[in-house]
Amino acid sequence: MIESADSLADLVRAYRPALLVMALVRAGVMDRLLEGPGTAAEIASRCGVDPAALARIMEAASSLGIVAAEGRSYSLPEGLARGLRGGPGSGMDGLRHQADTFDKWARLESVLRSGRTDYPDGHDVTLDARRNETFIQAMHAYAAGPASRLAAILPREGASSLLDLGGGPGTFCFALIEAWPGLRATVADLPLTLRVTRRLIDSLGLGDRVDVIESDFYADPECDLGGPWDLVLLSSVMHAEGEEANRSLLARARRATSRGGRIVIREHILSDAGPSDPRAAIFDVHMLVSTRRGRCYTRREISSMLEGAGFRAPGRRGAPGAGRMVARAGGG
Length: 332
What we know:
Distance between the termini: 48 Å
Strand order of the largest sheet: 6-5-4-7-8-12-11
Largest sheet: 7 strands, mixed
Structural class: alpha/beta
Strand content: 15-25%
Shape: globular
Order of helices and strands: HHHEHHEEHHHHEHEHEEHEEHEHEE
């Protein structure tokens, strides 16, 4: 609980270091530093930025420990550089995505006044190819840990087929088929997204166990979800749309689930009573500025939607605060 004006002011000023990093990312400075040390003048020449301004920003970045300074030369700390390097799903993808999301958060006051988000289609990750690729690759990095944890706690019960609805890069599929030798998985997502998914499947040599289906399942209520599937996964999907669209999607997922099969929901879940986990509450605001109808839901709301679709009352998986819910299709 913040109880002083000074503490609130400290919280408000936290945007400054974040914007500093975003500027370095967008200007290509972080990519240049991954190649090796350089002076502000050398880096500015490569990145097409003002050398005097960069020198001052690098001094601030050095004071924060973001870069290391030796004389007039700057470099990234070894541990940070190691975390940022790599291909799809690297730390740099995560930073680029955060820089992109700032454009939407910058409109928060407008959303507060009007009650709705209004941003150019070029900022929509489902429409803009560059932002989509950055977003999906960042999701691959973010999902690695949660995917492994989910695979470790889900009972296998002989499931042989998995539909990952809105599975993005396929990270959860990769973790689940590694844990379940007999499982075959299919990722259903938008064509732009599946460009990245297919590359990851090929790079991991999983083409014989992971398929993809191009599907705009929210926009097209008649799209075929295939099946019957023993396991249907919706990981961080429902928050992108409103309740009506989610009830429709869950009803179609129920029809595509095998007799006695299961659906797994993984979400940022708001509290039914009392303060919510800050991560879920802040993410709900992120949906407010990032989507036109999306929002986070309470456990009670998700349970109601699942039961309305014909699934049995869902149970939790993992720690009490974990946003994982598992429900079984009726009749099995």
